[in-house]
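ingest -> fold -> write
write: protein_1
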Amino acid sequence: MGTLFPVHETDPEADVAGESLAEAFRSVARLIRQASAESLARWDVTPSQFRALRILLRDGAMRPSELSEHLRIAPRSATEVLDSLETKGLIERGPDPHDRRATLVALTEPGVRLGASINAARGNDTERVFDRLSPADREHLARILRRLLE
């Protein structure tokens, strides 16, 4: 298992200096994705699997098509994620009580426990990307990101 953050042989600030703002943002997003994937590896869960667990933990049982919409992935990709979670015993498929032609997916008890454990532990792992920032810089960045999302 690698380090939580990549080791740069060159000065990362110098690398970013030549990038456009959008490129720099993508580079930081890539760092966060790497940290997230490495953090999840200890639970043998991929980022896609965790996103599905988190949505099911938050919203409860739903149809696979609804889950694919939440995940913003193709239904076929959602099926692959669900198949892998089912193989691990973290979700189960069952009939939709309101439409017998439809299927619902729900977390199993081990899925609920794992999702809650990961939620509790991993926030700190991915937040470490921002450890290089002062509290004031973090506050400014949070304000700017909220503004961009408006």
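write: protein_2
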Amino acid sequence: MFSLAVDGLDQTRARLDAYPAALSAALAAKASELASALADRVKYDKLSGGALNAQSGALQASIAASISIAADGVSVSVGSEGDVKYAAIQEFGGKTAAHEILPEKARTLAFLMGGSLRFARSVHHPGSLIPARPYLRSAIDEMADDIVAGLASAAQDLERA
């Protein structure tokens, strides 16, 4: 008769059962770190002269990273949060419609034209063709290898532990 005894089977089973949760936690931590780095690249590189020059700082201030952890995986989002109406048109380009520009805090508009100060009750803007100035997509493209390597490294570190 043949008999086999395996020591540590319960501990091995417990470790294997815990592996998916540990992997999810490790990937979530690394994804959060990488998302923060991506948001910083967008803010301090792309929106500080790399793709666009900051004027008011509203778009730069609206860039945020968020992470969502669910049973089926980890999801990361980096983008403009809030009411920055021009965020998408700067990223993807597009055409603005013709519209009237009216004064908000005074009875007339004042502006420089041809070196002289002009006044008007309204101005007809014919619309604009805005070229794409990708600040999010270009940052993702530049960091893609680092993101993949970082997530792979987090999984490999867990395997070694």
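write: annotation protein_2
The CA atoms of residues 5 and 12 lie 14 Å apart.
The chain has a mean pLDDT of 86.
pipeline exit 0
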